[in-house]
Every structure is written in structure tokens, then in C-alpha cells.
Structure prediction request, 156 residues.
Amino acid sequence: MSRTQGSLVRNAVLVGFIALGLTSTAIAQTASPATGLGASWPNAADVSAASNWHVYVFRLHGIKYVQINDLGGTVHAAIGTANGTTIVLPVGVDAQNVTTTATAASSTAQVVYHDASTTITATPQSSGATTFAVKNATQSCPEADCSGSNVIQNIP
Prediction:
């Protein structure tokens, strides 16, 4: 083999390894889910509907996890939901103050998260705690409480 052919083969192998490395990096970046459930500042986008809360969504094995933090990074609550079923996760300072059943909404309730299947409101308590109410789209929504494009204004 001539010197020129050897250089071409070596360069082709080198380019192949570089391309393989870049492909692996790109796949790892697009395939890895957001991480940090339970963390003050998780590796996930803030999708809060309210400016005084941080809300992070994680998805794993068909389950959507929603975590609510205050502006200082304190974890207040987290839920897991799939197919209309919601569970409260034992995470956060207000985990014991999360309801998943339809209850009367307080006039001070604020929507902190809303998507096509889940709405979460926060209601401050006189004790300093916050109560969170979770409503799934599969729960009934009286006509007076809903409007337009499935936006919940008042959670029953």
C-alpha cells in the first residue's frame, strides 16, 4: 500500500470515529429524559402557569410526574399521573396538603400548572402551608366552571 492510500484510509477511519462520537452524543441528548425529581433545581424546564411558583414535569414509562417548587427552590409537592389516575408522591414540605379528589375551590386558589389532562391549583393557608388540588380532565367539569378550549377557571 502506498503512503497516500494509507493516509486516506487512516483519515477515513478517523472521520468515521468522529461521526460515531457525534451521533452518540446527539442521541444521548435527545433520548435522555429530564432528571432531578425531588431536587430544588431539577434539570427540566419550568412550565409554571404562575410567576410565583416553579413547576417541573418529568415523564418516565408512561407516567407524568409534576413537581411544584417555590421561588427559593423549596420542593412543596409532587404528583404522578397516568390514564386519569393521580397519586401524591411523598415529596415536599406540603406533600400532606395535596388532594386529588374534586373539592370546592377557594377564592384564593391559583392555577400553578395546566395541560390537556391535569390542572393543579395552590391555595395559601393561614398556617403558612399551601394546599394543592389536582384535577384530571377525566373528572367532571360543570359547564359553569369551564370555558372555551378546556381551560378550567374554577376547580370544583
